[in-house]
Structures are given as C-alpha cells and as structure tokens.
Automatic annotation (TrEMBL), chains A, B:
Species this chain originates from: Ancylobacter mangrovi
Protein name: SDR family oxidoreductase
Gene3D superfamilies listed in its UniProt record: NAD(P)-binding Rossmann-like Domain (3.40.50.720), UDP-galactose 4-epimerase, domain 1 (3.90.25.10)
Organism taxonomic ancestry: Bacteria, Pseudomonadati, Pseudomonadota, Alphaproteobacteria, Hyphomicrobiales
Xref: NCBIfam families: ErythonDh (NF043036)
One family name in Pfam for this protein: Epimerase
NAD-dependent epimerase/dehydratase domain mapped to chain residues: 3-204
GO MF terms, alphabetically ordered: oxidoreductase activity
Entry keywords, A to Z: Carbohydrate metabolism, NADP
Keyword NADP: yes
Length: 327, 327
C-alpha cells in the first residue's frame, strides 16, 4: 500500500512518519511506499521512503502529489492560527485553497480511472467559538473565531461533500491542543500550556500568563499520532455526511497541569514557573473550549490519555528518555 | 444610499426589488440608487434603478459589481440544489467561488479606501443534514447532505470571518422553504409543497408524491422579502462571529397544508390533488428538517407567518388578486 503524508516535515508529520516506519503497516495492510511531502524538504529517509518537496497551495504541485495515487493520504499541511491571523491571504491560500486543490487533484485523478483514497485531515478545536456549554456535544455548531478555524471548518465541509460524492473516503479529526508539544517555545497563544511543563522538567524557567483556573482540552503528540493512524483504518460508512469528529482528550486546568508537574518534577520544577499575567493571552484563551463529550469518536475507538499524568509520562518517555538515550 | 441586489432577476430578487422601490427606503435610510444585478438582464426599470448584467463567479464581474460601493448588498445569486447536485463544477463555481469573489472584491475595495457594506446573504436550511432532534436549536451543527448545502455553509463561514475581520458587516439568513412559490411547477424535489396548493387554487391538478405526514419548515415569499429587508437594517454587533441565523417559519405537515387549502379553495380544490407516491422524492424529503427553535432570529425581530393559513392568504393577496387586477 502507498501512504502519503502531506506536511511531513512538521511536528506531527515527523512523529507519524516514524511511527508508520516502525510499524510497517497501517489500516491493517503493509506499507510498500511511504511518500513524505512538505513545502520544506522532509529529512526522514530510508528504504520504502520517498520524499517530495511540494506546495499543496499550488495547483500543479497538488496534481503531482496525487499522481502516484496513494491509497491513504494524511493531509497535515497548514499554517497555524497566529500566522493565518497575521497574514489573511496566506492563510486562505494554504489552509483553504491548499485543501481544495488537493481534493480537486484527487477528483480529477478519479475521473481518469477508479480512485478513492482514504483522506485523513487534521482539523482543530479552532472550528469552535465561544460561548460554549460546559461540555460540548458532537452536534455543537462550528462558529470559528479565527481565520485558521474558519479555514479548517471549510476544509471539513469540503471533505464531507467530496466523500458523499464518492471522490474520496475522508475523515476530519479535530485534534485537541497537543501537549506537551516538543521543541523550542513558540509564540502561539497556546504555547504556555506546554512550556510550563516542558521547560521546568529540564530545569528551565517558563512563563505562565494566565490564572491557574484556565481549563482546556489536551492530548499528547503520541495520542495525536494514534488518532491519525486509527483514522486511516476504520470503517467510515456509518458516518454518512458527518465526517468531522472531535477527538477525545483530557480536560485539565493549568492548576492540574502544575499538580502533575509536581508529581514528576517535584517542588523544584514547580518553582521554575514564573507568573506573569498577560491580559491579551488571557482574553484569547478564555474564548477556547474547555471540555467535550466526544461520543462519536469514542464509539469509533479513538482513545486519548486517561489523565494529565499520562500526558506528562508520554513526554518523559518519548522526548526526555529518548534524548538522553538508553542507560 | 446605494443598494444592490445580486440575483435580482430571480424569484426573490424581483419581489425584493419591487418592495424596495415601493418603500423607497431600507435600513431607515432613503434609497438613492438601486442596482439590480444578475447574470440574466433584470427586467425591472424606473427612476433610480440601474441594471447590471454580471456573473458573480467571474473575478472581473465581481469587481465591477462592487465598483459603485453599494452600502447594502443583497447576495441572492445562486444555482439551486438540484442543479448544483447535477453539475458539481458549476455549483462550486457559482455558489462557492461566486460568493468568495464577491467578498474578495469588497475586501480589495476596502483596501483602497474605507468601505464596509452590510452584506445580506440568502442561505438555506440545506446547511443541515439528518438525523435531527425534534426541534432544531440555533447551536445545531451544519452537516449538509447536498453540494448546494455545503456551498451555502461555506458561504456562511466566509461571511462570518470577513465580518470579524472588518471587511464587511455581514449576515447570513437561512430561509425556510418558500411556499407558495409563485410561477410554473418546477422539477425541484420540494416543488410539490407549493404546487399542491398553487395549482388547485386556480382549478388545476397537482401531484402529491409523499404521504400527508411529511412535515417541513415554511415561509411565504413575502415573509422572505421581509427577512431580507429586516436583515439590512438591524444592529449586528451583538452577534460576534455567529452571523448565520435560521429564520422563523411555520412547521406544517402536508396534511395541514391540505386542510388550509380546503378552507380557502373548498373540497373542489382538494380533489385536484392526485396522490402518486414517488419513492425517490419521499426519501429525499425525509432527510429534511421539520422544525426549528430560531431563538436568535426571533430575538432580533425576524417574524414569519403565524400559521399555514396566513401563508395561503399571502399567496392569494400577492399573486391571485394581483393577477386578476382590482375589481
Ligand atoms: N499541534 C497542535 O496542537 C494541533 C492542534 C490541532 C490541529 N493541528 C493541525 O495538525 C497539523 C499538523 O500540526 P503540527 O503541529 O505538526 O504543525 P507544524 O506547523 O509543525 O507542521 C505543518 C507542516 O505543514 C507544512 N506546510 C505548510 N504549508 C504547506 C504547503 N503549502 N504545502 C505543503 N506543506 C506545507 C509545514 O512546512 C510544516 O512542516 C496541522 O494541520 C495543524 O493545523 C495541530
Ligand atoms: N426559494 C427558496 O425556497 C429558497 C430557500 C432558501 C434559500 N434560497 C436562496 O435564496 C436566493 C434566491 O432564491 P430564488 O428562489 O429567488 O432563486 P432563483 O433561482 O429564482 O434566483 C436566483 C438568481 O440568481 C441568478 N444567478 C445565478 N447565477 C448567477 C451568477 N453567476 N451571477 C449573477 N447572478 C446569478 C439567476 O439568474 C437567478 O435570477 C438563492 O440564493 C437561493 O439559494 C431560496
């Protein structure tokens, strides 16, 4: 089977690629060819891996991506919320036109001969906008409060319609905020959710710009990769036109994050969190969802961590143990 | 004030134009110029009326539409459900790209000098897809089961984002199924809802393809024009990013329609309905919403008919009395 990851050089793309290489199969079938595509040259290589530098927002590149007729396509390419908000045109070009070009490329490949790949699209909680009920049901409407969220919501609608028409067999999975996001601190408004754990766990300071009462919905990078993998293999025929699923996650407050940090890093780690209230970040974050009741995803077998401790444990196992290497 | 109707040659566009001409004002301000635009040359004329033949799905035409910087734009141009389903590319070109081109044309006009028109977009119940709760709340999600519904739902999302960013001051109103639709019978799956009244009221036969128990959500053409007019004038600042409103309507079964017909046309009219079950139509219609709880629209002052009799009365007053002329 031919599997393609678009956005393969990104944080989740790289982890997904490693996972697929390690397992050698997905959706219960062996992977013969894994194409890693990104606008940045993907760095992973090995037998059965092909890399492709392509910009999904270019019509020609989108056609080239699909030319090899991959059986499963993970569409992870996107620019994130802050950038899509700062650069209106770029956000629409990459996050909306990119997705549409990809869908159109698949549709025209299908017009040349039977082709209906499984398409897994990484959507986001950003499709939702405040105010929210305490626990958000699957039937809650998408009223994004960012251009990024709008572009993801439109991608979901296109994916559902192209699926209904038989051009693709698509599923959009709305990923929780990934925590602990590995790597360097970034400027995303959500960055502190990860950095108040990631930095103190290695003895560095981190800034907390919001009160401890702030609650949000999380999953580890490992869980996110698990969602993507699971989404590639399940039977979607029962979903009808409802192809967008909110993924399960852990609802936790910043205070609960800090409690988990105390259990793993002790008081010394907790003391590395510097409280520095930021009105702007606090206001943005107040508009974010806090808790979901993701019945449909659970019924289809998607599983997140049971609690926040498990999320910290994943980080220690996958990032810190790996970094220091085997004893 | 300069007002523009795009899709002005259509059923609702013509009625809205007549209404605006008769009132001479909208949103509490006098209309100095009324531009009637359509891909088909609009037939209405008179002082202060300008007609424009333009295809909103062409980038150049969209810019031309906006060149006169109308203060209020009614965007009614669309191809309907059946056609968008039969011709996938045409549906996306007109119903999606057309709306996006219009929004982009407004955004670039705004880049040349302050411009933020009120944009009223005629959306549809087709943004919803079965299964439904018995009464659909405002917060219910949009999972369209047609390409037309998908295109309308995407238009709503774009309109909300362009409003949030300050490029337009937009509102999408989801019109109920218009009943009694004047004119000739057409091939729309929903056609019978109107024809089982319209034809018998003038002594002609009509075909009923579904059981009398079928329930749906209706408003008269006059109410629809009232929604559009009202949408042009109200303060939308309280809506935030939630710019799409399901309009109030009358929830009625086919049996209730027939009872209303009996009250206005007598037994003789009812006997002109020929029952001719059609599995395909019955299946399509079963997927349609039956009843809404349109709290947000009611709070903003949108009003539909109180019952189905009122819907029939509007037809008699606006179509039949008008056709025969004053006594
Ligand atoms: N990380 C999260 O918390 C989170 C949450 C919800 C959804 N998502 C979504 O998951 C996906 C992956 O997230 P991530 O955290 O790995 O992001 P990332 O920014 O690390 O990776 C995205 C990748 O897409 C690539 N890309 C951007 N534009 C492209 C284009 N035009 N053509 C081809 N490739 C392009 C980038 O080069 C990058 O490698 C994204 O779609 C993101 O929106 C992430
Ligand atoms: N009638 C209903 O029951 C109903 C219900 C819900 C929503 N709506 C929506 O209300 C609007 C008006 O409905 P209607 O019943 O008057 O439809 P209609 O078909 O009578 O009118 C639509 C008009 O749009 C014009 N048009 C089509 N493509 C165009 C283009 N590319 N550029 C410019 N003009 C174009 C057509 O020529 C036509 O005159 C539509 O957007 C429709 O989707 C109607």
């Amino acid at each position: 089977m031919h599997v393609m990851i678009i956005g393969a050089a990104g944080m989740l793309g790289r982890k997904l690629a490693s996972r697929l290489v390690a397992r050698g199969e997905v959706a219960g079938r062996p992977i013969d060819l894994l194409t890693l595509a990104d606008v940045i040259e993907p760095s992973q290589c090995g037998p059965g891996i092909r890399t492709l530098t392509a910009d999904v927002s270019s019509l020609g590149d989108a056609a080239e991506l699909v030319a090899g007729r991959p059986d499963v396509i993970f569409h992870l390419a996107a620019i994130v919320s802050g950038e899509a908000e700062a650069d209106f045109e770029k956000g629409y070009r990459i996050n909306l036109d990119g997705t549409r070009h990809l869908l159109e490329a698949i549709r025209s490949a299908g017009a040349q001969g039977p082709y209906c790949p499984r398409l897994v699209f990484s959507s986001s909680l950003a499709v939702f906008g405040a105010p929210f009920p305490e626990e958000i049901p699957d039937e809650f409407f998408a009223t994004p409060s960012t251009s990024y969220g709008t572009q993801k919501a439109i991608g979901e609608l296109l994916l559902a319609d192209y699926s209904r028409r038989g051009f693709i067999d698509g599923i959009a999975i709305r990923l929780p905020t990934i925590c602990i996001r590995p790597g360097k601190p970034n400027k995303a408004a959500s960055g502190f959710f990860s950095s108040i754990l990631r930095e103190p766990l290695v003895g560095e300071e981190a800034v907390l710009p919001v009160p401890e009462s702030v609650r949000h919905w999380f999953a580890s990078p490992r869980a996110a990769v698990g969602f993507l993998e699971h989404a590639a293999g399940i039977d979607l025929s029962g979903l009808g036109a409802r192809r967008s699923l909110t993924m399960p996650g852990v609802s936790a407050t910043v205070g609960e994050e800090i409690e988990a940090l105390r259990r793993f890093g002790g008081e010394r780690a907790v003391r590395l969190i510097r409280r520095q209230p930021d009105e702007t970040i606090a206001r943005i974050v107040l508009g974010w969802p806090q808790r979901f009741d993701p019945k449909a995803a659970l019924a289809l077998g998607f599983r997140a961590e049971p609690d926040f401790d498990a999320i910290v444990r994943v980080h220690i196992e996958d990032e810190l143990a790996a970094a220091t290497g085997p004893a």
